[in-house]
Amino acid sequence: MNFVASFFRFDHYRTSFRKETVAGITTFLTMAYIIIVNPAILEAGGIPRGPQTTATILAAVFGCVVMALWANRPFAIAPYMSENAFVAFTVVKTLGYTWQTAMGAVFVAGIVFSILTVFRVRSWLAEAIPLSLKCAFAVGIGLFLTFIGLNETGLVTLGVAGAPVKMGNIAAPSVLLAVFGYLLTVFLMTRQVRGAIVIGIVATTVLSIAFGVTPMPKEFVSLPPDISPILFQLDIGSAFEIRFLPVVLTIFIMAFLDTVGTLIGLSMRADLLDEHGNLPEIEKPMLADALATTVAPLLGTTTTGAYIESAAGIEEGGRTGFTALVVAGLFLLALFFAPLFTIVPSHAYGIALIVIGSFMIEPIKRIAFDDFTELVPAFLTIVLMIFTYNIGVGMSTGLLTYPLLKAAAGRGREVPAGMWVLALLAVSLFVFFPKM
Question: What is the SS3 assignment for 256-277?
Fold first, then answer.
């Protein structure tokens, strides 16, 4: 126990074994859905669901272990949701490329990520982002999580043309359980009960099973599906063809922007940023996600990165890599107990996302509301993250409008060189992504 505390620097981060463990459990419970959802999405792109389940879990385990032992940060890593849909529905189903070629593109992106990280290019770019946009990333992610949570619990559902969202059926048992779970969680947090989010999720799940809303799994233990049909099946050669360049570039930009925004947003909430608004040794968590993205396609799955659901563990006190290590251990157990770990219904883990959002809007008070060149890019970042349901689009808009507005106001000297590079990347995303 003393070795663990010393290795992960519990005293420095004012945390403890119990806090970190609870944080890891909380993070895992809010992101365990990826074990089911990622294989289901990629199956549409022709990747067998069984082997993909194993690949998803192993990619998460690898990424979380590297994040824990190398970067010592409480950020869980797993396959990204937006990138998996892009590969399955756009690259494979729409453009007609094979999933093996798509995996080759992910591998190339991972290698480039690793090189840029080692040479500190990614950290240089991250440090060039102004404080107002860093605050906007945190707020936008928090509200994005809230929107997801409201949808997952059924409190908000799809509407009709002219009114795209509406209140869900509040008389539905699942919605009532979600409301109960949310109120229970908030009450426990008000009373400063440690593990409040976990208690809320577990209590809602148990009641959901008891009332017959969530069915019991047919089995609790299962052997991992054979991964061999997709292991090392990527086609790297085709990824270097000129016609495939827009796909590679889009995957690279999406993953780059998602990772930067997530790391900064989560770090701000965890109070890990220094007095200049930068994450010390940011290249370490960046290298962790770069290495995970390189390994993921070898296993047969898509781009990985830091998960915004890590905010759940951060709210429970997670501050070190031990949180990520706990997540890795639970993912490893999920290889054999997947039916048990995935029994948590969306209306149970959704309440955690709503709770987290209320805490992540705090940095908005640090945005300079009296400076139009700071306010507008931050505002666009936040609202477009939510209303386009895409973190990358919101970030790209902020990164592009910030230097343009500064230049238009005759204050171009305030813009670091790295911000112009990020603006160029943002333009590239808007140029290539719609054509996909």
Answer: HHHHHHHHHHHHHHCCCCCCCC
Question: How confident is the model at residue 436, as a pLDDT?
Answer: 46
- Spell out the long-range contacts of 192-197 with Cβ–Cβ below 8 A and sequence spacing 24 or more: 194/18, 194/19, 194/22, 194/316, 194/317, 195/22, 195/26, 195/316, 196/316, 197/26, 197/312, 197/315, 197/316, 197/352, 197/355
**Who's near 405: CB < 8 A, 6+ residues apart?**
372, 373, 376, 377
Provide the residue type at 396 as one letter: S
For 309-339, write each residue's pLDDT tens digit. 898 899 889 999 999 999 999 999 999 887 7
Model pLDDT for residues 92-144, shown as the tens digit of each residue: 887 888 999 999 999 998 999 899 999 989 889 888 999 899 889 889 888 98
Phi, psi of 164 (to 5 degrees): -65, -20
pLDDT tens per residue across span 152-168? 899 999 888 788 889 99
Are the C-beta atoms of residues 113 and 294 closer than 8 Å to each other? Answer: yes
d(CA 107, CA 128): 27
pLDDT digits (tens, 9 = 90+) for 332-390: 999 988 777 678 888 988 888 898 888 788 889 889 999 999 999 999 999 998 988 87
pTM, two decimal places: 0.80
Do the Cβ atoms of 253 and 428 come closer than 8 Å? yes
CB of 369 closer than 8 Å to CB of 136 = no
* CA dist., res. 249 & res. 94, Å (int): 17
Cα distance between residue 126 and residue 29, in whole Å: 29
Q: How many CB atoms lie within 10 A of CB 407?
A: 15
256 versus 76: which is more confidently predicted? 76
Q: Among 264, 254, 289, which residue's Cα sits nearest to residue 131?
A: 264
Q: Is 242 exposed, middle or buried (0-12, 13-18, 19+ CB in 10 A)?
A: exposed
CB atoms within 10 A of CB 192: 7
| 318 half-sphere exposure, CB direction, 13 A CA radius | 34
